Every structure is written in structure tokens, then in C-alpha cells.
Amino acid sequence: QVHLVESGGGLVQAGGSLRLSCAASGRTISANSMAWFRQAPGKEREFVARISWSGANRYYADSYKGRFIISRDNAKNTVYLQMNSLKPEDTALYYCAALRDTGGIAYWGQGTQVTVSS
What we know:
Elements: E1 3-7, E2 10-13, E3 18-25, E4 34-39, E5 46-51, E6 58-60, E7 68-73, E8 78-83, E9 92-99, E10 105-108, E11 112-117
Parallel strand pairs: 2-11
Antiparallel strand pairs: 1-3, 3-8, 4-5, 4-9, 5-6, 7-8, 9-10, 9-11
């Protein structure tokens, strides 16, 4: 069983930056691809970014390319999401997830709130 805890969310002005962290406990996530998703008020949860187990491969939804950077530190059992040039429409609850080999979700975190003011 893996327990994922996100942190680093908060209130930021448009144009600002935040760095989210997702710390895993229970067992290592070094063999898992990891991903970030987000859910804005009244909308469905959507994919943001994914990183392979080694960190060598990273994928982003088009909306976040060039603004967000996903990274990981397997020694710390932690995944990060650096968010730059934030916009009010980036306001959402951000979740990290550990992925199965098939690409499905093995574990979800509880989410961290990001609010971007205009």
C-alpha cells in the first residue's frame, strides 16, 4: 500500500509560481510512473503531466507545456510539479497519482488546493 501526500498548494497571484510536492510512504514508488492531475470547480479531473519511473520521459497535456515541469527524486520518494506563469484558470485541486504498468491509477493522493488570483 502506498500513501501519497501532496503539499505546496496555496494562494498566488497571476503570473506567479508554485512548486507542488507529492511524498510517498508505505513503499518505494521508484518503479512507478507518476502523474499529476487537477480538478477545477465544476469540472472533471484532468491529466496534467506524467513522468516515467526513471525520470527520463515526461509528458504534458498541451495546456501546460512550457509552463509546468514535472520531476522526481526517487531517493526521497517524492514527485514534484513546478508551476510557472500561473493563470486564474489554473485554480484547482491538484492530485498526484502512482500509475500501474498498464497506465491505470494505482494510488491517489488527497489533493492540494491551488488558487490563482487575478
